Amino acid sequence: MKAFTELYSQLDQSTKTNDKVSAMVTYFTHTHAADAFWAFALLTGRRPKRPVRTSDLKLWATELAQVPYWLFEESYSVVGDLAETISLLIPLQESNTHKSLTEVMNEIIAIQLKPDEEKKQWLFNFWNNFSREELFVFNKLITGSFRVGVSQQLVFKALSKTYDVDERVVAHKLMGDISSQNLDLKELLLGETASFDASKPYPFYLAYQLDIPFSELDDIQYWQIELKYDGIRGQIIVRNNQVHVWSRGEELMTDKFIEFDILKSLLPNGTVLDGEILPFKDNRILSFNEMQKRIGRKNISKKTLADVPLCMMCYDLLEHNGEDIRQMPLYERRKLLETVINSADTSVLKLSPVLDCYSWEMLDVLRNESKTLGCEGLMLKHKESIYETGRRRGKWWKWKVDPYTVDAVLIYAQAGHGRRANLYTDYTFAIWDKGELVPFTKAYSGLTDKELVEVDAWIKKNTIEKFGPVRSVKAELVFEIAFEGINASPRHKSGIALRFPRIARWRKDKNKEEINTKEDLLQLLNSVS
Amino acid sequence: MLIQFTNRGIYCPQADVYIDPWKPVSKAIITHAHSDHARIGNSSYLSHTDSESILRYRLGEISLQTLPYNETVVMNGVRISLHPAGHVIGSAQVRLEYQGEVWVISGDYKVKKDGLTIPFEPLKCQHFVTESTFGLPIYNFPESDELKIRLNDWVKENAERGLNSVIIGYALGKAQRILNALETDLPILLHSTIYNTNAALGFDNSRYIKFTQEFKKEQLNPGVVVATGTAVGSPWLKRFEPYRLAFCSGWMQLRGARRRRNADKGFVMSDHADWKGLNEAVEATGAENVYVTHGYKSVFAAWLRERYKINAVEVETLFEGEGVENESPEPEAPQQ
Ligand SMILES: [Zn+2]
Ligand SMILES: [Zn+2]
């Protein structure tokens, strides 16, 4: 636990990506296999179920800290994080435990089913024997989200350095749902043909916004042009007569998209499709919101299924007859994709049409027309491109219709004026910059009154600090900000100023790890100026 | 009542004197030289002897009378004396006594010793005016020696990696504590505000480099830079690259505060009392009436009522406590 706490503190305190990677490399190199696996699982957001109810946790913490409950709540509202609040309130002591991370994790799993009194004694035992830093990390493990400001990609990078394995291999071997297995990371990563979980998706290949002139691109005939859809990027995996659906956020969403279940009988085993999951009815794409609402529901009724049917607009084939074909050029993958979709012959799989386009001028026209089709612009994919890992420049580009958009996380809020004087309606948003969130723009309106009230209530519950009329809030809610232009601005801390920024919509489907980076915006800036 | 809370500040009508007024008055007693307590425009000032030079440096030409600790002046029958508050050099609690009624106005204070200022003196009184900057049980500050080890370890670690250590703290109080805690042979460079403040305090500057435009990177290579909050995010800092940045403040107790400032490191170092200190101070006065000013006023007052069964009320003031954003309740340059 000590070594992991040390790692956590280093990751938490460092603002430099290189420092973070080297801290992880040091940890992975020196820790034994079981702990390394747990550290990996925790750093990439895989965590066992909460063993203790939040209400019990608060109650027992006030008992040990000897503060009245109301004072605990006041403290919590200032700190904004339950794990941290408890670690600050419990009387300070020297660290007095030698349990390994694995031992602690096993205890956390084992205690789940025990009676409350036993849980309490178990907690007190930890709380009385941990240093403040250990206490904080331990509390993080048993409460809400365990995040430490490293992306999954960064963890992969560290593992790739530790074991000297290609980053893409690391990514694929460790994608998806592996928390149930106690793996030896080293064995898995260095092993020749480890047996994978049949549900495992491939890392997604993501495109950058086109930011270089056409003159720097190959002739247009080398490019496959498709529409850019506004849905949920996903992979459908058929293996061992089972269907798995993964979102780009690496969530297994099979049970949310039940119409794809029939594919186990329509697609051959060893098929992996990449595409956009869309609400689609009467030959028309429905609004993204409709789908979001459907996803939010616990149970999907027959009526919902009929009202908001989903399909996948397929644009790539990653695995064919059990073979990883990502190294094939796109034009060959496309041919196979067409055969697969046509022989499946089902309304839940559609083939993303390839647009005919003979000149760059025509491309501009097509881009503007895409909006009338419910799309956000175009995708340009080089016909020779292999299927890469992660976000890369060069062979795949997205070319969105104006206005520009950026996904950002809410960090400050201020009350509005007039009719909205009681509501927190003026927001400041942040994007990532080298692993840290930096504020970069304000944005107003764009939300419905109902959403405003919802966000307002959330803000009041998740305030970290108040400075005058401004509150800083937990970085959690992601919004898509639309804007008309971008300028360099030395006056702003981020160095960037947006023109007419406004909230396009609330992205409940995204978390803060998935938002844009300052680098994205700087690239956009360079491309427009 | 001997004391009233008015819109000009804390007022004693019998003596016709204000304590730390925020609007100009004829007679002002100043607890200490931080800008939210010592403002310009008063006709005459009274402060502790050790505050004299720094007050003159910051406020320019003023009519100032000084008093050592524990010496009494009488104003229209009110016996007034100053007592150590342990906050910064020259900081004082003001004790006022008239016809058996005793008030203590503590200004800003801390109970923990910092090895630099004369330690806080507990005083018996019936009415106690206290701050509450860190008036929540989450604020428990480490001892100075523990802090010293952490700070020096961090500086050493950076130096071994060829990095400069930039440490942020405000010029009066924090900067001197940081310099006192540093145990290193590395060159130490001071932001000019800090250098000048040191000079005004009579703090020995001979070991330090004052920043000037002639500064060359090689003078550090690597070293330590002590600067005020105004340097953060400014181009001025760029010249010290590569560096790691640390803040010294009580707010660094909270992870969120540290992260928002983009700090590589936060050292929990404050010139204000923590939760335990505030409780100890209030208890030691034996006061039945406690007036809670800047900070978590309402929470701390409610706690005092519940825990000690005393009359505790919150009082609105314009005092600011420990700066959050720029860490700097002080003007950048002396006002002449
Ligand atoms: Zn002060
Ligand atoms: Zn103050």
Structure description:
The complex is a heterodimer of chains A (529) and B (336). Chain A has 529 residues and is of the alpha+beta class. Chain A folds into three domains: 2-143, Orthogonal Bundle (DNA ligase i, domain 1); 205-400, 2-Layer Sandwich (D-amino Acid Aminotransferase, Chain A, domain 1), CATH 3.30.470.30; 404-528, OB fold (Dihydrolipoamide Acetyltransferase, E2P) (Beta Barrel). Chain A has 19 helices and 20 strands. In chain A, the strands form four sheets. In chain A, strands 3, 4, 5, 6, 7, 8 and 9 form a seven-stranded mixed sheet that branches. In chain A, strands 12, 13, 14, 15, 16, 17 and 20 form a seven-stranded antiparallel sheet that branches. In chain A, strands 1-11-10-2 form a four-stranded mixed sheet. Chain A is globular. The radius of gyration of chain B is 20 Å and the shape is globular. In chain B, the strands form three sheets. A seven-stranded mixed sheet of chain B has the order 7-8-9-10-11-18-19, covered by helices on one side. A six-stranded mixed sheet of chain B has the order 1-2-3-4-5-6, with no helix packed on it. A six-stranded parallel sheet of chain B has the order 14-13-15-12-16-17. Mean pLDDT of chain B is 91; it is low at 324-336. In chain B, strand 16 (243-248), helix 6 and strand 17 (265-267) form a beta-alpha-beta unit. Chain B has two domains: 4-139 and 271-314, Ribonuclease Z/Hydroxyacylglutathione hydrolase-like (Metallo-beta-lactamase, Chain A); 144-267, Rossmann fold. By secondary structure, chain B is an alpha/beta fold. Chain A binds chain B through residues 12-16, 65, 67-68, 70-71, 74-75, 78-81, 84-85, 88-89, 92, 136, 436-438, 464-465, 467, 472, 493, and chain B through 136-140, 233, 253-260, 262-266, 296, 299, 302-303, 306, 324-325. Bound molecules: zinc ion (2 copies). Residues 34, 36-37, 108, 131, 294, 319, 321 of chain B line the site of one zinc ion.
